[in-house]
Amino acid sequence: MKRGINVLWYGIVALLAVELAWLALPVPERWVELYYTTGLFALVITPLVAVQQLIPISMSALVTLVLILCGLVSALVGIRRARKREVPWRTIAWAGFKWVTAAIVLIHGWFLLTFGVGYRREPIESRLQLASADRVTRSDLDATMDDMLAVITDERQNPEIRDERGALRSIRNAMGDLVLEWDGHEPPLPEKVKRLPDGLLVLFGAYGINSPLLMEPHVDGALPSHAVVSTGAHELAHVAGFSGEADATLAGLLAGLRADHGYARYASALAAYANLCAELNPDEQRARFEALPAEALNDLRAESEVYQRYTRDVTQSVFQPMYHSYLVTQGVDEGIEDYSRGSRLFVNVWQKGLGKTPNESQD
Ligand SMILES: [Zn+2]
Question: Do 133 and 228 fall within a single domain?
Answer without folding.
Answer: yes
